[in-house]
Specification:
Elements (H helix, E strand, L loop, with lengths): L1 H6 L9 E2 L14 E2 L7 H13 L4 H8 L3 H19 L8 H6 L3 H6 L3 E12 L8 E2 L4 E10 L5 E4 L3 E2 L4 H7 L12 E3 L15 E3 L12 H25 L16 H12 L9
Parallel strand pairs: 3-8, 8-9
Antiparallel strand pairs: 1-2, 3-5, 4-5, 5-6, 5-7
Keywords: Metal-binding
InterPro entries: HARBI1_dom, Transposase_HTH_dom
GO molecular function, one term: metal ion binding
């Protein structure tokens, strides 16, 4: 209940702006109502939202479980996701250099002790209208792409918004706000070799990516070791991303109905992962 208490929806849900069917998901407070009689108690609405987000229960199934209509399920889910997005968004998830050093696992200390963040991109499928901007031919559905970053300890320290799947890794770094993070001089970023971003990183920040093969047919022994070391550390960001994708609403394509809050769903899921046990124990 600690999370529920932190969110503080109010005894009767008076702190939540409830979305009204037929209104835009991003409606202003004038177009929504606060408080007032509810079919469910706020704590039950919270549980319903987590069932939808974490377990991927269909709206029609939740309507049956909670003895409410499907439109009411949709209204509750959209309202709570927006509410959680705003509340959790006030938490500063970018740790100081000092905290990063104090919690740095031995693997990073031994190999890349200046690491501040490990970044990667991931794709989320959606059933939005297929068009040339969104369609991913090799996956046969539309995709949305997000940049995320984790600390050496394995917590999300950057959660970028979702963009159309055709965006390049470099472009998403430029557009996501990642470059505006308060880096310290001497920090380094670990990424896959597709992130050719060394020239756009803030002054004093370096990039560690696997070496390119270049003109030679094979890597040097040093390059092989560097590739293996970076790969062994990058696996942690992949595990962090998988924790988000364990929220089963992302198991298949995201239906059109909640598409307007897909960024909120993505961000809330990642933020909730930060209150789980870290993926790196020491």
């Amino acid at each position: 209940m600690a999370l529920y208490d932190f969110l503080n929806p109010g005894e009767h849900g008076e702190n939540i702006n409830y979305w009204l069917s037929g209104k835009n998901v991003d409606s202003t407070p004038k177009s929504v109502k606060q408080g007032g009689p509810r079919t469910l108690k706020p704590v039950d609405e919270f549980f319903l939202t987590l069932c939808r987000l974490r377990q991927g229960f269909a709206e029609v199934h939740l309507a049956h479980l909670f003895n409410i209509s499907q439109p009411t399920v949709s209204r509750i889910f959209i309202s709570w996701i927006n509410f959680m997005y705003l509340k959790l968004g006030h938490i500063n998830i970018w740790p100081s250099r000092e905290l990063t050093n104090a919690t740095m696992p031995e693997d990073f200390k031994a190999k890349y002790p200046t690491t501040r963040v490990i970044i990667d991109c991931t794709e989320v499928p959606s059933s939005l209208l297929l068009n040339s901007e969104l369609f991913s031919s090799y996956k046969h559905h539309t995709t949305l792409k997000a940049l995320v970053g984790i600390s050496p300890k394995g917590f999300f320290t950057f959660i970028g918004q979702l963009y159309t799947g055709s965006i390049s890794d470099r472009e998403i770094v430029e557009r996501s706000g990642f470059l505006n993070l308060p880096f310290s001089n001497g920090d380094s970023v670990i990424a896959d070799k597709g992130f050719t971003i060394e020239d756009i990183l803030p002054l004093g920040v370096s990039l560690n990516i696997p070496p390119f093969l270049g003109m030679s047919d094979q890597m040097s022994a040093e390059d092989v070791i560097a590739t293996q070391e970076i790969a062994s550390l990058r696996i942690y960001v992949e595990r962090a991303i998988n924790k988000v994708k364990n929220f089963r609403i992302f198991d298949g394509v995201i239906p059109l109905r909640p598409f307007g809050i897909v960024n909120q769903m993505w961000s809330v899921s990642a933020m909730l992962c930060n209150i789980q046990d870290p993926i790196i124990s020491a």
